[in-house]
Amino acid sequence: MDKSTFDTAKVIISGPMHSALKHDSAHKHVTGTADYIDDIPEPAGLLHGALGMSDRAHAEILSMDLSEVRRHPGVVWVFTGKDVPGVNDVSSNGSHDEPLLAETGVEFHGQPVFAVIAETRDAARKAAQKAKIEYRDLPHWSDIDGALENGSPLVIAPMTLQRGDAKAEMDNAPHRLKGQMRIGGQEHFYLEGQVAMAIPGEDDEVTVWSSTQHPSEIQHIVGHVLNIPSNAVTVNVRRMGGGFGGKETQGNQFAALAAIAAKKLKRAVKFRPDRDEDMSATGKRHDFLVDYELAFDNEGRIHAVDATYAARCGFSSDLSGPVTDRALFHADSSYFYPHVHLTSVPLKTHTVSNTAFRGFGGPQGMLGAERFIEEIAYAIGKDPLEIRKLNFYGQPGSGRTTTPYHQEVEDNIILRIVEELEESANYQARRNAIIGFNRDSRYIRKGIALTPVKFGISFTMTAFNQAGALVHIYQDGSIHLNHGGTEMGQGLYTKVAQVLSDSFQVDIDRVKITATTTGKVPNTSATAASSGSDLNGMAASDAARQIKERLVAFAADKWSVDPAEIVFLPNRVRVGEKEIFFPDFIKQAYFARVQLSAAGFYKTPKIHWDRAAGRGTPFYYFAYGAACSEVSIDTLTGEYLIDRTDILHDVGRSLNPAIDIGQVEGGFVQGMGWLTTEELWWDDKGRLRTHAPSTYKIPLASDRPKIFNVRLAEWSENAEPTIGRSKAVGEPPLMLAISVFEALSMAVASVADYKICPRLDAPATPERVLMAVERMKRV
Questions:
Q1: Which of 306, 310, 301, 20 is nearest to 149 (CA)?
Q2: Which residues does 373 contact at the CB level (< 8 Å), separation at least 6?
Q3: Where does 466-603 sit in CATH, by number?
Q4: What whole-number distance in Å separates Cα of residue 168 and Cα of residue 185?
Q5: Diameter of the chain by CA atoms?
Q6: Plot region of 605 (φ>0 → left; ψ -120 to 50 → alpha; else → beta)
Q7: What does the alpha-carbon distance between residue 170 and residue 172 come to, in Å, rounded to a whole number?
Q8: Fewest CB atoms less than 10 Å from the CB: which of 245, 262, 408, 496?
Q9: Annotated active-site positions, please?
Q10: What span, in angstroms and rounded, lies between the C-alpha atoms of 773 and 752?
Q11: Which residue in 747, 739, 732 sits closest to 675, CA to CA?
Q12: How do residues 372-426 score in pLDDT, each as one tens digit?
């Protein structure tokens, strides 16, 4: 076909990088046609599983009578830890401290001690209630205070970050103060609960469909409990109905139980716990108790910080080590501490083992840092924003760029982000107006706050910073994409498909996105740490590069042109003076026996970390952002409204602005829930009482700010050569919600004419706001 034909042909590419395309499954989400694991047509003879859970927080198991359970109609098999063919352990970190089914003792209320397999889910659940277990109760503690009072052991060795001499500087600085802050946990509350279905194969093979962010870990755990090699286990994930970190390790037990039963009974088995069981048996965001001492001068410039971060980790280590580490990594927020000493205290408690949650400890560390700023501002009578800007990290060469973990902040744009938002949100005028309003208002008080975000991107476990992708081009020019990342609604599949669309310059509807499976891409890392697009996008790009190099070599040889004269254009390829439609070009390459498949790979450069020394470069780059929120509180009831929020967020050069805006909005609202309405509560028997929507309040659409303005920093571009010069967007936006918490604090402080820091604890529920108001009245 000659070139003139293309003058009238439609050759505009649809779907390259940086385009605002819809999520590939958006229409399926809203019409209910998206298939999740519980929607998969059930295999013939499918059995259903249920958990038999303990009703003690800490006890020795003296006896267990399961005869009534076995006699219940429909029950096929009941098994305990003694029936596990391999190792009775589902710990994610090799610590062997998390039994699949407890055998001799239980360490939290709701811990699984046996499993029931029955013909129906209802029969399995009802049978599980008929167990007769005799316990000998042991001392238990379910919170940080109890752990400290009882000298609780740590679930993992603590970490310390230090630079300079914080203790000595406390005596040298003009001002010093001490304080304490409590930061609550959070339930993931994914819409699709935990679910796994195992289908037995021949010999030792088993296929598992799991709602998990970490298919390779499920593969490893299933092999572990069945005592079979990983090559016998295939794990598939098409999509999850939300994850937020709650499906990074917490799916292990359900997949393992299903696989054991499937292989034993030679029938497909599904586990799908009820919401109450899910919330009782799976981990949450860690709550923290932060004790701090600050030294600062008359202007509010920080001289030294000495802080301890104690965390409720639960009965086993799970991911508490890296979570508490990341809390310390973000205890500086956006601020330079000349002298600093930070220590983590990962405490064992008799509660479910806490786990990953969006931000992974970063939000807790950052919230503590904003309390430091607030304390200083009220102590010297200044606007907290002024103190924030005074203490920001500086530019290279300023001497104010070294973090507590000795990484240099080389890409700092936080001041530009904050000042741009300060102007666009009209912060100064609104703050002055709010102060005036509070002076004249008897019952309603307002607050406003502008807070920054600086979030490190990379897994702090260096080995996890790798990804693979498999790309095929078929004879008709259609493209098949598979990679190690999982889709939980965040748009990862769409973004990586855009990478291929851009690489080959074809419409995105030519790229088929297929379920993540360990059978195609091995040794995958969890889709976590905001790294999904960074890692998998680069791996897909690498696969595309390999195929394109072969195609260029083929074309150069076939048409006797220089490789530089071969250009991929929208839906066609230019070879010298000739232009060929992409499908025709691929067909010819196939007949020339060009390999049209490639496995791509990527590992993040530059990063390294020495935990024992507290030094290294754990993060490839930082993502930045800022939010300005205005609130109104009722001082008679503690109730409040979010009147307005303005956000300016840095995603580098966005791969997909539409999806990224959605991530910013969703992350902010989820963070707002963590800091305002979502409260976890255990009673004196160690029972989680907030275990259902009736007792646990997540934010609704009606709770969003009445005015909600969200913009991306379109001028930003990642200084590092990430995919398309983009930046991660999964976790950083959650911390924008700290602006709401700080605005509530200002509103409360107005009751005492801003003389002292209100020291609000999180979550700032209406009850806590009201109690803080009453404290301010007594000042």
A1: 310
A2: 333, 335, 384, 387, 388, 391
A3: 3.30.365.10
A4: 34
A5: 88
A6: beta
A7: 6
A8: 408
A9: 731
A10: 9
A11: 739
A12: 999 999 999 999 999 999 999 999 999 999 999 999 999 999 999 999 999 999 9
Q: Edge-to-edge, what's the strand order for the sheet holding 511-513? A: 511-513, 479-483, 466-473, 597-603
pLDDT at 763: 98
Interatomic CA distance for residues 708 and 629, integer angstroms? 9
- DSSP codes of every residue in 499-553: HHHHHHT--GGGEEE--EETTTS-SPPPS-TT-HHHHHHHHHHHHHHHHHHHHHH
| Gap between the Cα atoms of 670 and 667, Å rounded | 5
Question: According to the model, what pLDDT value does residue 352 have?
Answer: 98
Say which residue the tokens 């999964």 belong to.
730
Residues sharing a CB contact under 8 Å with residue 557, sequence separation 6 or more, in sequence order = none
Angle between the 738-749 and 362-380 helix axes, to the nearest 10 degrees?
30
Count of helix runs (H) and strand runs (E) in the chain: 19, 29
Low-confidence residues of the chain: pLDDT under 70? 1-12
Residue 11 pLDDT:
55
Angle between helix axes 657-676 and 362-380 (nearest 10 degrees) is 70
Residue 161 pairs in a beta bridge with: 342
pLDDT at position 7: 43
* Contact between residue 103 and residue 61 where contact means Cβ atoms under 8 Å apart: yes
pLDDT at 13: 72
Q: What is the distance between the alpha carbons of residues 356 and 320, in angstroms, rounded to a whole number?
A: 8
Radius of gyration of the CA atoms of the chain, in A: 28
**Structure-token match 């390779």, residue found:** 216
Residue 4, C-beta contacts closer than 8 angstroms, at least 6 positions apart: none
Please report, as a single letter, which amino acid is at residue 774: E
Nearest 5 degrees, angle CA 539-CA 579-CA 589? 55
Contact indicator for 716, 492 with CB cutoff of 8 Å? no
Tokens of 385: 């924003």
- Is there a contact between 274 and 128 (Cβ–Cβ < 8 Å)? no
What pLDDT is stored for residue 4 in this prediction? 39
Structure tokens at 142: 């379910």
